[in-house]
Design a protein that fits this description.
Helix content is 25%, strand content 21%. By secondary structure, it is an alpha/beta fold. Strands 11-10-12-9-13 form a five-stranded mixed β-sheet. Strand 10, helix 4 and strand 11 form a beta-alpha-beta unit. The protein is elongated. The relative contact order is 0.21. The model is unreliable at 1-29 (pLDDT under 50).
Length: 290
C-alpha cells in the first residue's frame, strides 16, 4: 500500500549538516509547555524538570522526521515528539539540546549518558532492548527500496535485487534485513547516513537504496524528478524512543505522554504539520507496556 501523497517529489540535494548540537526554534511550538508534575525525588523526570533542559538525540538528515533547518535545528515528526515530551516536563523548546545521532551511535549515546532520549527513526528490536530501553512504539514503518525515477532497472520488489548493489546505513536494521536478498555481502554498500546513498544511486554505483519507506519518501520528496519509492515494504519497523536501560519510571512516563497524545488528537496534529505534508495520516500503533 502506498503511504505517500506523492512519493516522487521536491527539488534540492540532501542537506549537509555541520555541527552536532543545537537548540530548537521556539517560534512555533506544537504543544503547550506544562507546569511539571510533582515527580518522585531522584527520578529522571524530576532531575530533568529541575534542570529545565533535556538532551535529545535525533537524525539531522531525515526529511519529514528529523532534518536540520538552516539554523541547524532539526525539524520533523521526531523533533515534534521530542518537544511534546519536553513540554510535559515543563521544558521550553529552546531548552532542548539536540544532538545529531546516526544509526551506529544511538545505543552508545544512551549508554554513555550523552543524551537523555533518542528519537531518531529508531526501530525497536530484541537485540537493542538488551542494552537500552524503549518507550513506544509511536509509529510503524516498513522497509522499502528507492530507485531512480522511471525505475530503469525494473526493480519491482526486494526479490529483484539479486546481482544488484544496494546502499544503506551501517549499523541499521535495514543493513541486516537486506542481507538475505542480495547475491553477496559485497553487494551491500554501507555508509553513515541515508543522504550519502543518493549520489551512488545517481551515478549507477548502486541500483537501489533501502531503509524505511517514510525515510525514502522524504528523500524522494526532497529531490524532485530524481527518485521514486518502489512501494513494496517487506518488513515492519516499529519506531521507539530510546532511553537508559531499566529506567522503568521514565519509560512509563514517556509511554503515558505518547498515549495521551494519541487519545487527544495531538499525535495527528504533529503528524500533519510534518510528515503529513507528504504521507497519509496512519493509525498510531499500540504502545508496548512491557
Amino acid at each position: 500500500m502506498r503511504l505517500s501523497k506523492g512519493f516522487v517529489a521536491a527539488a534540492a540535494a540532501a542537506v549537509t549538516v555541520l555541527g552536532l548540537t543545537a537548540c530548537t526554534d521556539s517560534s512555533a511550538p506544537a504543544v503547550d509547555v506544562e507546569t511539571p508534575a510533582d515527580f518522585a525525588a531522584g527520578s529522571t523526570m524530576a532531575e530533568l524538570a529541575d534542570a529545565g533542559e533535556i538532551t535529545i538525540g535525533t537524525k539531522f538528515d531525515q526529511p519529514l522526521f528529523g532534518l536540520a533547518n538552516p539554523d541547524g535545528v532539526p525539524e520533523g515528526f521526531d523533533a515534534e515528539i521530542g518537544k511534546l515530551i519536553a513540554a510535559k516536563l515543563g521544558i521550553e523548546p529552546d531548552s532542548i539540546n539536540w544532538v545529531e545521532t546516526v544509526s551506529a551511535n544511538r545505543e552508545p549515546f544512551i549508554q554513555n549518558g550523552q543524551v537523555d532520549l533518542v528519537i531518531a527513526t529508531y526501530t525497536i528490536n530484541d537485540a537493542r532492548k538488551e542494552v537500552v530501553s524503549f518507550a513506544g512504539p509511536y509509529y510503524e514503518a516498513g522497509q522499502d527500496l528507492l530507485v531512480l525515477e522511471g525505475n530503469p532497472e525494473g526493480i519491482e520488489s526486494v526479490d529483484d535485487l539479486a546481482g544488484k548493489q544496494v546502499c544503506t546505513v551501517s549499523g541499521s536494521t535495514s543493513e541486516a534485513n537486506i542481507a538475505e536478498y542480495v547475491s553477496a555481502p559485497t553487494d551491500i554498500i554501507a555508509t553513515d547516513t541515508y543522504s550519502n546513498c543518493l549520489e551512488p544511486l545517481r551515478t549507477g554505483a548502486v541500483q537501489a537504496v533501502t531503509t524505511d519507506n517514510v525515510i525514502l519518501a522524504g528523500l524522494a520528496d526532497q529531490n524532485e524528478g530524481e527518485f521514486e519509492v518502489v512501494g513494496e515494504p517487506f518488513t515492519a519497523e516499529p519506531y521507539g524512543i530510546g532511553l537508559a536501560l531499566d529506567d522503568t519510571d521514565f519509560r512509563m512516563f514517556v509511554n503515558d505522554t505518547l498515549q495521551d497524545a494519541e487519545d487527544d488528537g495531538t499525535w495527528d496534529e504533529l503528524w500533519e504539520k510534518t510528515a503529513g505534508k507528504v504521507l497519509e495520516t496512519p493509525e498510531p500503533p499500540a504502545i508496548d507496556r512491557y
